[in-house]
Design a protein that fits this description.
- The protein has helices at 22-42, 45-54, 64-75, 88-96, 120-127, 134-149, 152-167, 182-185, 188-194, 206-210, 229-235, 240-250, and strands spanning 78-82, 99-103, 170-173, 176-179, 200-203, 222-226.
- It is an alpha/beta fold and 262 residues long.
- The chain binds fe (ii) ion (FE2).
- Fe (ii) ion is lined by residues 118, 122, 126-127, 167, 182-183.
Length: 262
């Protein structure tokens, strides 16, 4: 997560609705229209099935209560608006309670192609389709529960698991590489890069993921590939804090990316 943002959180009314301006709705509509053919071509089936189930509006920013209503019926999850940046402790405890923390602002046109911090386009378009799948929902909640019991020193380890699955996971479908994660669904450039055959692909492995460092501000040089969502569901049953201890003992892998310029 970035350490600062120029964007202000938007505050919901008593019913949980946020008043977006016509321009903000238009930014949503244009982002949706650009990304829809991309996801149809490059995203994995579980995401696309979830996209149909969640049925987000194409012409305006979706509202948390309406999306929560659909999610709750499907997997018991809901979406709650939060400030753009929240502490990891709160982030994990919300996931543990099957509540997805959603940044409420939408990017401005000058950030149309790329924005480092999550905005509501990323949260809704990227995350909510996957949260309609019980296997994905269980795995998300398992990370939250582990984080809620973890010490602060464990947060960065657990976040790597979140990063390489929920945000940037891939899935093999037959002989095709497809994208699964939310950070890919909402990012035109990285979506194409992730399935281009150029990055390194490693099989989904919890310990290996926990040991793999990442940078948030560049396309990933390495992705982890699931063969099916059942593997994620199985991972939800693991003792993830014991896995963190194992990974910590083994140590981080050497980074595959250049150091960030100061
Ligand atoms: Fe995200």
């Amino acid at each position: 997560m970035p350490k600062s943002t120029k964007y202000q959180a938007k505050h919901p009314d008593d019913r949980g609705f946020i008043a977006y301006t016509p321009e903000e709705d238009a930014v949503w509509a244009d982002l949706y229209a650009r990304q829809k053919p991309q996801i149809e071509a490059l995203m994995a089936r579980p995401y696309l099935d979830g996209f149909d189930r969640i049925a987000l509006p194409a012409d305006r920013v979706p509202q948390c209560p309406e999306v929560s209503e659909r999610l709750t019926a499907l997997t018991g999850w809901r979406v709650e608006p939060v400030p753009a940046l929240i502490p990891f402790g709160r982030f994990f405890s919300m996931l543990a309670e099957a509540t997805f923390p959603a940044a409420s602002f939408i990017r401005s046109r000058e950030d149309f192609d790329y924005i480092e911090e999550p905005d509501i386009f990323h949260e809704m378009f990227g995350h909510t389709p996957l949260l309609t799948d019980p296997r994905f929902a269980a795995f998300s909640q398992a990370i939250g529960k582990a984080g809620a019991q973890a010490g602060k020193d464990d947060f960065a380890w657990l976040i790597r698991l979140y990063w390489f699955t929920i945000e940037f996971g891939l899935m093999r479908e037959g002989d095709q590489m497809k994208a699964l994660g939310s950070g890919l669904a909402s990012s035109p450039e990285e979506l194409e890069w992730s399935v281009s055959g150029q990055p390194e692909y490693r099989p989904f492995d919890v310990i290996d993921i926990l040991r793999t460092p990442y940078r948030i501000d560049i396309p990933q040089p390495v992705y982890f590939v699931l063969d099916d969502l059942d593997a994620l569901f199985a991972a939800a049953e693991r003792d993830l804090l014991a896995d963190v201890a194992t990974a910590r003992e083994a140590g981080l892998h050497a980074p595959k990316f250049p150091p960030k310029a100061a």
